[in-house]
Design a protein that fits this description.
This protein is of the alpha+beta class. The protein is about 30% helix and about 30% strand. The protein has a domain of about 120 residues: Immunoglobulin-like (Sandwich). Helix 5 runs antiparallel to helix 6. It starts with 5 loop residues before the first helix and ends with a strand.
């Protein structure tokens, strides 16, 4: 049997693959060029939301079926199918209009600029800072937008109004974006709100969906004597629910934990406030996305009268956790058994 050199064979297969992929890409490009005006306008307008698979499907769909595709496209992103308004669509187009007005001095349409894109996807920032030239060495102009404490920087090197986004890792803001995964079609092709279709994820009218801070709490007794009670309170906070701020390539936040111990009659016998920092690099953040951040807090009671009151029943430990980045807080209580 004749042997075929390995490297030339691999090169031949690679060339064939590139040819096939190139042909597919050229075909899609040609389809896009030949789109009727209203469909070309739709494809341009939804560039920040449409997936690659959806784009290919739309281009491959005959013109007679494109209106149904557009209807399904927005229905799959409707956060509340029971209302007449599609909140995501309304918010998306409202932000495009606002971005065109706010950033109209740029060379292109406002919503197509870097600042416009961020505005459309994430809405107005909670805070905008424009450092003085002296703070930026006098060589460029800088804008910093803050969303829940997370900064996005835009740099205009020539101070001509042409700001470019220079903060590229926006993973901490993914839940804020209007660009959420669309709900899948049901087996029968039904749309949101119809039988066989789950509703889309809820999305805020102004800022987009985001997860709410939460934690689990467990209290373990370590010392229980007539003259002293000690316990270790363990809090577990899912990483996906934590808002961080980015500084020097690291993701940081500070938690404030207020702990109060009450006796069976709900009277306070001990309370204290703790501060705990979370500090991770980008690699750790991505690796631990499904993990939890742990805070352990020692609790101790040594006052004689307080010990007597605690011994008379089952004490309750109340916990209030606050994330200083975003100022979210949540309260829970556990029994001290």
């Amino acid at each position: 049997m004749k042997k075929v050199p390995v490297l030339p064979a691999i090169a031949a297969w690679a060339a064939l693959a590139l040819t096939v992929l190139g042909s597919a890409g050229c075909a899609l490009y040609q389809m896009e060029r030949e789109l009727p005006e209203k469909y070309a306008e739709f494809l341009s307008e939804v560039r920040y939301l449409i997936t690659n698979a959806e784009r290919k499907t739309f281009l491959s769909t005959p013109d007679s079926g494109k209106d149904a595709f557009i209807e399904d496209f927005w229905a799959r992103r409707d956060p509340d199918p029971d209302t007449s308004d599609n909140e995501v669509r309304s918010e998306y187009y409202a932000r495009i209009a606002q971005a065109n007005e706010m950033f109209r001095r740029d060379a292109v349409k406002g919503w197509l600029t870097d600042r416009g894109r961020i505005y459309v996807l994430y809405g107005p920032p909670d805070e905008k800072r424009v450092p003085m030239l002296a703070e930026t060495s006098g060589r460029n102009c800088l804008e910093i937008w803050y969303y829940k404490g997370f900064p996005i920087q835009f740099l205009d090197e020539m101070c001509t109004g042409n700001f470019r986004q220079v903060t590229f890792d926006l993973a901490p803001l993914k839940e804020l974006s209007l660009n959420q995964p669309p709900a899948p079609l049901g087996p029968d092709g039904s749309r949101p709100g119809e039988p066989g279709r789950r509703p889309a994820q809820p999305v805020s009218r102004t800022r987009g969906a985001r997860a709410v801070l939460d934690f689990s709490a467990e209290l373990r007794s370590t010392v229980r004597r007539a003259d002293r009670m000690e316990g270790m309170l363990r809090l577990e906070i899912p990483f996906r629910l934590i808002w961080f701020k980015s500084e020097g390539g690291r993701f940081l936040t500070t938690f404030t934990v207020f702990v109060r111990v009450r006796d069976e009659e709900k009277k306070t016998v001990w309370e204290k406030t703790f501060s705990a920092e979370a500090n991770y690099d980008e690699t750790e953040i991505h690796k631990r996305d499904g993990d939890v951040h742990v805070i352990e807090i020692p609790i101790y009671v040594i006052q004689e009268d307080a010990l007597a009151r605690l011994a008379a029943g089952t004490p309750t430990v109340e916990v209030k956790l606050t994330n200083q980045t975003g100022s979210e807080d949540v309260e829970k209580s556990v029994e001290w058994k």
